[in-house]
Amino acid sequence: MFKKVLTATDLLEACDAAVLTALEIAKQNNAKLYILHVLESPYSGKYRQFVKDFRTGEEIVASAEYEEAIKEELDKKCAGALKPYGTYEIKVVPGFPWVEILRWARKESVDLIVLGPHAGRAEEKGVVRVTDRVGSTVEGVIMRARCPVMIVNQVIPSEKLKFKKVLICIDFSKTCEYAFESALKLTQKYQAKLHTFHMLPVPQGYYTQSELENEIKANKERIKTLCKEMPEGIEHECAVWEGTLPYVEILKYAREKDVDLIIMGSHTKEKDNKWYLGSAVEQVSLRAHCPVLVVTHPKAVLKFED
């Protein structure tokens, strides 16, 4: 299913959760793994090549020799995990992280991008983290990537990366229907049980009990209609819960069922001529105990000019 997997890291001390997850998925699929490290600079334009030396902290020009030193450092720190697999390539480039991630993803025609929700060295680089946001790098990639983007916020045991329980979040949008197709393919590959979940928004006092039950029943029927083309042999469980915050109910259900992977449509939306991720995607990605695979409908992918 995945022939080329790209991950990005800004850590030089050790392999982070995104790299280890991407490696495990590459192993499962006999895929080539690309590990990208972007040299960020506080400057723009022609001064973009000036960066802090990871060894001395001094400002230097990011020369080819320096890029090679970074590559060797990454290779050394991750050797225990990477060397036994062997099918990987480390790339070191200067630039804006989300731009370079997209550039290399398209250049190598990767099938999957695996990222952590935040930069590991935000304070050192002077980056201000915004509470409850996945970060500009992840947001920039998701809204422009032509392939699924997996977000991992902690090291996942390899057994859980066999994805035997998959949760697809449904809100009946075009983006979610497209994500559902990806969920079916992945479920077939891993011979997993598929959980479909929909949260019915229920403002306090809005429904009587009988009205609520009717709404839940109606939404379950909509899910059955969506699942009518599901291939035979896939074990399936459907759930419709009522609530006020989608991400809260998604996370509760995911933990209750101990799912190994959550799949969501990106829900990119426009406001004042700008596009944003849906809040549920951000909140689930930041808090989930398992990887979150975000899929963007091709018509919603923002233009990216290399």
Under the CATH scheme, which architecture of the largest domain would be assigned? Answer: 3-Layer(aba) Sandwich
- Shape assignment: globular
Number of strands: 14
Q: Helix coverage percent of residues? A: 25-40%
Class per helix and strand makeup: alpha/beta
Instruction: State the low-pLDDT regions, or none.
Output: 119-131
Annotation field: number of helices: 9
Q: What are the secondary-structure elements, in order, as H or E? A: EHEEEHHEHEHEEHEHEHEEEHE
Q: CATH homologous superfamily of the largest domain? A: HUPs
Spatial gap, N to C terminus: 26 Å
Q: Which fold does the CATH topology of the largest domain refer to?
A: Rossmann fold
Q: For the residues shown, what is the average pLDDT?
A: 86
Sheet with most strands: strand arrangement: 5-2-1-6-7-14-11-8-9-10
Strand content: 15-25%
Structure description:
With 306 residues, the protein is an alpha/beta fold. It has helices at 17-29, 64-77, 79-82, 97-107, 136-142, 174-190, 209-226, 246-257, 279-287; strands spanning 4-8, 32-39, 50-52, 59-61, 88-94, 112-115, 149-151, 165-169, 193-201, 236-243, 261-265, 269-271, 274-276, 292-295. It folds into 2 domains: 4-151, 3-Layer(aba) Sandwich (Rossmann fold), CATH 3.40.50.620; 158-300, Rossmann fold (3-Layer(aba) Sandwich). The strands form 3 sheets. A 10-stranded mixed sheet has the order 5-2-1-6-7-14-11-8-9-10, sandwiched between helices. It has a two-stranded antiparallel sheet with strand order 3-4.
